[in-house]
Design brief:
The chain is mainly alpha-helical. It has a single domain, classed as Homeodomain-like (Arc Repressor Mutant, subunit A, Orthogonal Bundle), CATH 1.10.10.60. The protein contains 5 helices and 2 strands, in the order ββααααα. The chain has a two-stranded antiparallel ribbon with strand order 1-2. Helix 2 packs across helix 5. The longest helix is centred in the C-terminal third of the chain and has 22 residues. InterPro entries: Homeodomain-like_sf, HTH-type_TetR-like_transc_reg, HTH_TetR. This is TetR/AcrR family transcriptional regulator. GO terms for molecular function: DNA-binding transcription factor activity; transcription cis-regulatory region binding. Keywords: DNA-binding, Transcription, Transcription regulation.
Amino acid sequence: MGISENADSPLLCSREIKLMQYSKDDIQKEILKAAEKVFLENGFPKASMREIAQEAQVGLSNIYNYFKSKDDIFCTVVRPVISAFERMLHEHH
């Protein structure tokens, strides 16, 4: 990780600068993308918030600014799939 000087804050890690350039929505999308990958690879019971944070390249505590829990992330990840499935069922019945 590189260090950069900034007029507002004398020392910022390059990772912090990168995160500052993303909108809150972008960070949330990265967390969800990472969570989907971790859930698929490990299954829900074995997936951890720490693994999701590492995959998303965000701090573990930062995830809690977006989601209350692993259950909350999981529901957000699967909600579109469930909605699509329900639409498909309604269209065919």
